[in-house]
Amino acid sequence: MPHGHSQDPREAAASPSSRASRARPARRSAKATTACARVQTNLSPEFKGTPEGQAAEAILRKCVHCGFCTATCPTYQLLGDELDGPRGRIYLIKQVLEGDTPTRATQVHLDRCLTCRNCESTCPSGVRYGELVDIGRAIVESRVERPAHERAARWALKQGMTSPLFEPALKLGRLARPFLPAVLKDKVPASPSARAQRWPTRTHSRKMLLLTGCVQPALMPNINSATARVLDAAGIQTLVAGDAGCCGALRTHLADRAGGLADMRRNIDAWWPLVAGLTDAGPVEAIVMNASGCGVMVKEYGHALAHDAAYADKARRIGELTKDLSELLPDLLPKVKSRVHKAPARRLAYHAPCTLQHGQQLRGHVESAFRELGFQIEPPQEDHLCCGSAGTYSVLQPELAHRLRDRKLENLGALQPSTIVSANIGCIQHLQSGTPTPVRHWVEVLDQALSG
Questions:
Q1: pLDDT truncated to tens, each residue of the chain (452 aa)?
Q2: What's the structural domain count of the chain?
Q3: Do 255 and 277 have their domain in common?
């Protein structure tokens, strides 16, 4: 479309074909794209030839504005506003890239996106919406000034959650928990058990790296130690690079692209000696992620740093080696199955994080493995929808996040589970804030079954 003549996304929402698309099944074949025209772009000079502009233009031109994505967008389902769905946000970003001045309203609509990437699973044209919205947010962030309280909150999240002071601050928070406002109280879990400190000491010829994460060691350390114990039971030694920290997702999704890339480079530097076999430990065979949000970010390091000559090749190799813990289950199961303790209460409800099923396109590994081990495990209705956690989203957008959480918990609760299991600390913490039913990482349940 020529600049200045883009179709208003609100008009698109009112069209009969758009309304009909909402009622259709989520997944479509590529043949569906032939019925719609692809988006045409005319980038303004400031973006032409830049890496961000080229990437955004390629993504935009894949979109056929068919509207299938609206059927699976959580915020569109809640709010019913085209500009709070993927197609509307794509138009907003397109207009900014074509020279229109973004407004505070533009920023708000982009902020409301969970980056769940459900729309990517739905899209028949393969639009990389997650990458596009990160590009759009960064541009809008540089042009629209936020209110002071929002700037302060986002700065505190970026600096506080990745700081060495986070753990001592959390300890103080636990003491003050009864007096905290609800939005913060939800983020302060109980003190970890002594079991969380038990790390295996055996050495094995098979070795894998584990990213412990920025907040997980303080908030829920048993997830990491349980991972190490399960891998140890399968004859795999878990290594940790002390200088590795936040995967980069936190800053990237808060529109701090430069900060996110800096986090990625630091992790690559920390991991490379172990990846390249430059230490006595020898080369590791994989980099394991037990937080699916970190996993999808690290797998995309090669793409994020493709234009960095000093890091491009290393970043690509890091991405290739990265495995979500669930991807290891086919290898782990034969080695641990005979050691599973026959516990009586085995009814589990499984919440698959968006970063696992949509970001990494990994489905079914956990459910099939636990069924083989004798557990009753089921996904809930609307299992494709986000729970509302989405990293820092539940702090910055608590009203929408709680509505999505309660909807998810209603569906999970219908399964009458003894325990809800998931694969990402953010989802676990967010869901636990709304239910008395225990919410745990699936690896903790497996570890407990192995230990008896």
A1: 333 344 444 444 433 333 333 333 333 333 344 445 677 888 999 999 899 999 999 999 999 988 899 999 999 999 999 999 999 999 999 999 999 999 999 999 999 999 999 999 999 999 999 999 999 999 999 999 999 999 999 999 998 888 777 777 777 777 777 767 776 676 677 666 667 678 999 999 999 999 998 888 888 999 999 999 999 999 999 999 989 999 999 999 999 999 999 999 999 999 999 999 888 887 999 999 999 999 999 999 999 999 999 999 999 999 999 999 999 999 999 999 988 886 555 799 999 999 999 999 999 999 999 999 989 999 999 999 999 999 999 999 999 999 999 999 999 999 999 999 999 999 999 999 999 999 999 999 999 999 76
A2: 3
A3: yes
Provide the domain limits for residue 203. 194-328
Instruction: Note whether 69 and 87 are within 8 A (CB).
Output: yes
Clarify whether residues 444 and 350 are in a common domain: yes
3-state secondary structure 256-301: CHHHHHHHHHHHHHHHHHHHCCCCCCCCCCCEEECCHHHHHHHHCH
Residue type, 372: E
Give Cα separations from 329 to 93, 289, 326, 442 (angstroms). 40, 13, 5, 11
Looking up tokens 């179709």 gives 7
Does a structural domain hold residue 166?
no
Q: Any idea what the CATH number is for the domain that residue 352 is in?
A: 3.40.50.1860
With b meaning 16 or more CB within 10 Å and e meaning fewer, what string describes 142-152?
Answer: eebeeeeeeee
